[in-house]
Every structure is written in structure tokens, then in C-alpha cells.
Design a protein that fits this description.
By secondary structure, the protein is an alpha/beta fold. The chain folds into three domains: 9-85, Arc Repressor Mutant, subunit A; 98-169 and 271-297, D-Maltodextrin-Binding Protein, domain 2 (3-Layer(aba) Sandwich), CATH 3.40.190; 171-267, 3-Layer(aba) Sandwich (D-Maltodextrin-Binding Protein, domain 2), CATH 3.40.190.10. The protein is built from eleven helices and twelve strands. The strands form three sheets. Strands 4-3-5-12-6 form a five-stranded mixed beta sheet, covered by helices on one side. Strands 9-8-10-7-11 form a five-stranded mixed beta sheet. Strands 1-2 form a two-stranded antiparallel ribbon. Helix 5 (105-122) links the parallel strand 3 (98-103) and strand 4. Helix 2 (23-30) crosses helix 3. It starts with 8 loop residues before the first helix and ends with a helix.
Length: 299
């Protein structure tokens, strides 16, 4: 195929279609009309000699050729975008940029209200889109430009990413304020007699159970959930207890009838890192956001 006259705008359309799998949503994403996106898809099909997306029921499914093109096209578009903004200044007061960040509900709760208050004052047009973070670093999504930043706890971070220590955190035991077994902080045997709720976050074993297992001990976990918000409300209304990060524990205790107590064993802190693609270190807009997030982590 002769690429000298190839309209690169068609690649933006194909990227949007592969993300959305729907012409109407792709048009909305691109701020184009639906007929314009349909015409662009027809041109792509003719140029590439492949249907690219075929209708299956109410959705459109990519062909093998389209799937093979998805990653390199997305990476190329991201590289072009980053090359254009390198060296440019960033005017937060007039920016309409949207940043996509992956994090857990815990980090979202302790971080985002502060960030949003700052954005309201300094950058009212800037938007934030949050994606749920699994225990593993979403490296592919960062590489492909689907994510601007990731904020979480990771065992290892590849060297192609830039990482900053955002915050160190400890754990506390949380129970309803009038829990019959916890009028004072429990010792280890008292802790093991409790019935526990565990916020697993996609993990197979957390810090508490790892420590207990190393000492030949185990606790009774009566309920598991992936969400911290539901955990706090469930504990406030039952005799279950939960181990939460300290900042989150005190936040919930200010809103609900909960008591925060130390654990009867020393676990030490865990660490949260702010991760981005190293090649975006010269992206003025992203670094502006990184600076504000880092300041929040130091509070």
C-alpha cells in the first residue's frame, strides 16, 4: 500500500473504533458526526483491504487484522502526541485536558477530594478519569497511552517507567465503637478470637495473613470484599472487625461509630508509588499534575 497520501486522521478514527467497538460512541469520543466516522471506516476498509470491524449482534467486533494493528497504531498516536507537547508550556487555568489515572478506592478516597479542590481553584477545565487498579501494575495500558498515571502498591516496577514514592502507610484494627470484645486494644490471642472482614483488593493474601502464616497462626475471615467503603459500613453495623490503612481508618471513624486500635503485632509500613511512562518526563501538563499529587502524598 502506498502510504504517501494516507490520511493519518483515519488512524485516530480506527483507534477510537477499536476502543469503543461502536460507531456512535467513537463519534462522540472524537467529537465528530456518526456519518463522518462511518465514512472514515469505509475508507479504511478500502485502503487496507479488510472489513476491520464486523457487526455481531449489537456490537462491532474487530477482525484479526484490526487486532494486529491496534497496539502499534495506539503507540504511534501517543508518540506523535507526546512529541508535539514536549517543550510546550502548560497553562492550567485554560487547559481542557483529561488525565486518566488508575488507583484503588482507598487511594481515591484519601487523595482525590484534595486534588479536585485544587483543580477547582487552579485548573477548572482539567478533567480526571479514574480506572480501577488491580494488584498488578497495568504496564500495557501505560505503554499504550490508555493511562497517564498509576498510583498504588507494587512489588516491582520495570525500569522503563518513572516511579516516585508517594506515601508510606501503616495498618490499624477497626471495629464498631461498642464492640463487646474490643473495649481496649486486644493482645494477639484476643485478635485471633475475633471474626474478621478482609478487603482483598484482588490479592490472594494480605500483610496480616502473611505475618500470621509465617508464625503458624490463622484468623477467622467471615467475609471478604474488594471495596473499602462497603467494609467500613458493614463493620459499623456488625461484630466483624477489619484491618484498614491508618489514614482510611481515621477517616471512616470520623464519619461512622467506629473505634481505631493498634494491631497486637508489628507489621511495619507499606508503600504507595506514583508511576508514569519515563518518556513523558518532559510532558509539562503531566508533570504539573504529578507535582500536585506528590504534594498531597506528603500531607
Amino acid at each position: 500500500m502506498n502510504t504517501s497520501n494516507f490520511d493519518l486522521n483515519l488512524l485516530r478514527v480506527l483507534d477510537a473504533l477499536l476502543r469503543e467497538r461502536n460507531v456512535s460512541r467513537a463519534a462522540e469520543r472524537l467529537a465528530l458526526s456518526q456519518p463522518a466516522v462511518s465514512n472514515a471506516l469505509n475508507r479504511l476498509r478500502e485502503l487496507l483491504g479488510d472489513p476491520l470491524l464486523v457487526r455481531v449482534g449489537r456490537s462491532m467486533q474487530p477482525t484479526p487484522r484490526a487486532l494486529a494493528l491496534e497496539t502499534p497504531i495506539r503507540a504511534a498516536l501517543r508518540q506523535i502526541e507526546q512529541s508535539l507537547v514536549v517543550g510546550e508550556g502548560f497553562d492550567p487555568a485554560h487547559s481542557r485536558q483529561c488525565f486518566t489515572i488508575a488507583l484503588t478506592d482507598y487511594v481515591e478516597l484519601i487523595c482525590m477530594p484534595r486534588l479536585l479542590r485544587q483543580l477547582a481553584d487552579e485548573a477548572p477545565g482539567v478533567k480526571i478519569a479514574i480506572r480501577h487498579l488491580s494488584p498488578r501494575l497495568p504496564a500495557d495500558a501505560l505503554d499504550q497511552g490508555e493511562l497517564d498515571l498509576v498510583l498504588g502498591r507494587f512489588e516491582s516496577i520495570p525500569t522503563r517507567f518513572a516511579s516516585r514514592r508517594w506515601m508510606s502507610e501503616t495498618l490499624r484494627l477497626v471495629a464498631r465503637h461498642d464492640h463487646p470484645q474490643l473495649q481496649e486494644a486486644p493482645d494477639l490471642s484476643g485478635f485471633l478470637r475475633l471474626r474478621h472482614l478482609w478487603v482483598h483488593g484482588g490479592q490472594s493474601k494480605g500483610m496480616v495473613d502473611q505475618w500470621l502464616g509465617e508464625h503458624g497462626l490463622a484468623r477467622e475471615i467471615a467475609y471478604t470484599t474488594p471495596n473499602y467503603l462497603q467494609a467500613a459500613h458493614i463493620v459499623a453495623g456488625t461484630d466483624l472487625t477489619v484491618v484498614l490503612p491508618t489514614r482510611l481508618a481515621h477517616h471512616f471513624a470520623s464519619l461512622l461509630p467506629l473505634r481505631v486500635q493498634p494491631l497486637p503485632f508489628a507489621l511495619g509500613p507499606f508503600h504507595l508509588d506514583l508511576v508514569s511512562v519515563a518518556r513523558r518526563e518532559e510532558d509539562a501538563a503531566l508533570q504539573w499534575l504529578v507535582e500536585r499529587l506528590m504534594a498531597i502524598g506528603r500531607i
